[in-house]
Amino acid sequence: MSNYQVNNTSVNALISWIEQDIVAIPEIQRPFVWKPSKVRDLMDSLYNDYPVGYIITWQNPDARLKDGTVSHGKKILIDGQQRVTAIMAAISGKEVVDNNYKKKKIRIAFNPIEQIFEVENPAIRKDKRWIPDISQVFQQGFDTFDFINEYCERNPEISKNELNEILQKLTSVRYSSIGIIELAHTLDIEVVTEIFIRINSAGVNLSQADFAMSKVSVNDLYNGPIIRKTVDYFCHLIKSPAIYENIIENDYDFAETDEMNKIKWLKNYNTNIYEPSYSDLLRVAFTFKFLRGRLSNLVSLLSGRDFETREYKEEIIEDSFTQLHDGVLKFANETNFKRFIMILKSAGIVNAKIVRSQNALNFAYTLFLLLREKDVNDATINKVVRRWLVASILTERYSGSPESMFDFDIKRFDQHDDPMEYVKKVEAGELSAAYWENILPANLNTSVTSSPYFNLYVMSQIYNKDYAFLSKSITVQQLIEERGDVHHVFPKKYLQANGFNNRRQYNQIANYAYTEQAVNLAIKAQSPKDYMEKVKQQVNGDALHMGEINNMESLRENLEMNCIPESIFDLASNDYNEFLEERRELIANKIREYYKKL
C-alpha cells in the first residue's frame, strides 16, 4: 500500500467536505496567525489561477466496534489549516480567532476595474470603485443583475459586459484547484512527522505533540474538542491570564463546561516558574496516566491501535480518550499545580531561568502526579520530587533521549512501593563520591552562564537564604527576583589589564558572584587583594567603603556562603587560575550539601 496519494480538488469541494465533517480541521495551529495581507495575496493567487500549494490530510484508520462492525475514520487536515481558514474567512465570511482569542472578520476588498484585491479599510469603504467585502458576492442569493446595474451607474468607465465577465472570474475562484496529499493511516507517526518536515521545510514544522493534538481535537464522540480546548486554554492562560474574558466572550459553549470551571482559577494566578506549552502538558498527562514516554504511542492509542494484534479497536480509542481526559484535568487541577510550584520554590527555584531543562520540570510534575495517584504521603512526595528534579539536572538525565528516559523512569517509579528506593538506586550509580569530587568540579569549568551547574549553585544559595557577596541585608534571591546581575570576583577590566583577554578566561562561572550594584561599582577594576583590604579596614572600624559588613565574623560567614576562599585577601592576577580551581571545589561541595538537605 502506498504511503500517500496525490489528488486535486476544488475550493468548493474542500469547503463542502469541511462543513460536512468529512475532512476535520483539528485546529492544531490555532489561533489564526496569518496577517490579513496574506489572505489578500492568497485570493489574488486563486483569482489569477496561480498554484497555492498542497494541503496534507492524514487518514484516521477504520476502527472495529464491539459488535464487529467497522467505524470509518475521518481525514484529518494536518497542514494547510491557515490556508483553508483564510479561504473560508474571505469567501464565506467566517470569523477567525486571533492570538488573544478575540473573534474578528477579515474582509477582503476587490476593485473590478483594476482587478486587484486589498484588505478592507475606511478609504476603500468610501471609494465607489471597490467591493468592500467579496464574501457578499459568494453568498447564496446574491443578485448579480442588480449589482451590475448599480455598480455601472456609479462607475460608468466599465461596461456591464466587462463587469459581468470579471465577476464570473471572481466567483469561479470556488472552482480553483487545490492539491491534496493524503497520507495513509498505516504510517507510523515517525514517518508522518518526517514526511511533513520534508514537504513543509519552508514553514513551521509540526511536532509529534501537534499530531497527537490533531487526533484529540477531531474526535467528537469522546470529548476530543473539549480536551483540546482545555489543554489549549490552560497553556495560554498560564502565560496571559488577561485573555480569560476573551475566551468567555468568544467561546460560549466551552465557557459553560465543567472543564472551563476547573481552569478558571488561572485568571487570578501568576507564575513565571513553570509555564508549560501544550506539548509539555500533553507529555506530562500522557506519561503519568499511560506509564509510557513516547508520544508516538499516544497517537497510536488515540487511533485505537492494539499493540499486540496490530488491529484498531473502538474500545481502545474510548479508554485512551478517557485516560487522557483525566490526565489533562489532573495536570490542570489548581491544588496539584500550586503544590508542585511550592515544591519547586522549596528547592530554590524562584524563576524560570534557573531551570533551563523543560524536560526535567516536565518529568518532575509527571512524578508528582503519579505519586499523588498512588496515595504516597505528602512529605515523601515533596522530598522525592525535589531530589529527583535536582538529580536529573545534575546528571542532565533528560537532555539526550528524553522520551526513552521518561519511559524508563516512570515505569520504575510505578513499580516501587517506596519511591525513595529508586531515587537511592540512581544516586548510588550516578551521584557517587567520584561525581561530586571530580566530575562536578570539571563541569564547573565553563564560561556559559546558563550552565545547569551554575544554576544549581544559585538554587543552593536561594535554598540557604544566602546573602549576596559582601552584603549583609540583600539576599541572592532578592537580587534574582529584581533581575540583578552576576558580577566578577576578579573584575573583568582588571583581568584584561593583566593579560587575560579571552572571554572564556575572565567569564568563567567560578569567577561569578551575585553582588549588589553599589558593591560592584565600589570594586571597580581593583584586584581582590586591594578591594578586600578596604573591606578589612571597615571591619576594623573605618567608615563603610563597600557593602554593610562591619565585623569579621559576618565577613567570614559571607565569604563561606558565597564559596569565596579566605585566600581572597591576598589574591592578585597571577593567582587567578588557582582561585578558579579552589572555588569550583567549594561550589561543588555547596551543591552536594544542598542536595543532601533536600
Please characterize this protein's 3D structure:
The protein has 598 residues and is of the alpha+beta class. The chain folds into three domains: 196 residues, no CATH class; 207 residues, no CATH class; 156 residues, no CATH class. Helix content is 53%, strand content 8%. The mean pLDDT is 90.
Number of helices: 30
Main-sheet strand order equals 1-11-3-6-2
Task: Give the count of structural domains.
Answer: 3
Please give the number of β-strands. Answer: 13
Described by the principal axes of the CA atoms, the overall outline is globular
Helical residue percent band: 40-55%
- β-strand amount: 5-15%
Oligomer: single chain
Termini separation: 56 Å
Structure described in brief:
By secondary structure, the protein is α+β, with helices and mostly antiparallel strands.
Relevant terms:
598 residues, alpha+beta, 3 domains, 13 strands, 53% helix, DUF262 domain-containing protein, GmrSD_N
Q: What's the SSE blueprint?
A:
Blueprint: E1 4-10, H1 11-19, E2 23-24, H2 36-47, E3 54-59, E4 63-64, E5 70-71, E6 75-79, H3 81-91, E7 96-97, E8 103-104, E9 108-111, E10 116-119, H4 122-126, H5 135-138, H6 144-154, H7 160-171, E11 177-183, H8 189-199, H9 208-217, H10 224-237, H11 244-250, H12 252-255, H13 258-263, H14 278-290, H15 295-302, H16 314-332, H17 334-346, H18 358-373, H19 378-394, H20 402-415, H21 419-430, H22 433-443, H23 452-463, H24 476-481, E12 486-488, H25 492-497, H26 503-506, E13 512-514, H27 517-523, H28 528-539, H29 552-561, H30 576-597
Helix pairs in contact: 2-3, 6-7, 9-10, 9-14, 9-15, 10-16, 14-16, 14-18, 18-19, 18-20, 19-21, 22-30, 23-30
Organism: Halobacillus naozhouensis
Pfam families: GmrSD_N (PF03235)
Domain GmrSD restriction endonucleases N-terminal: 19-215
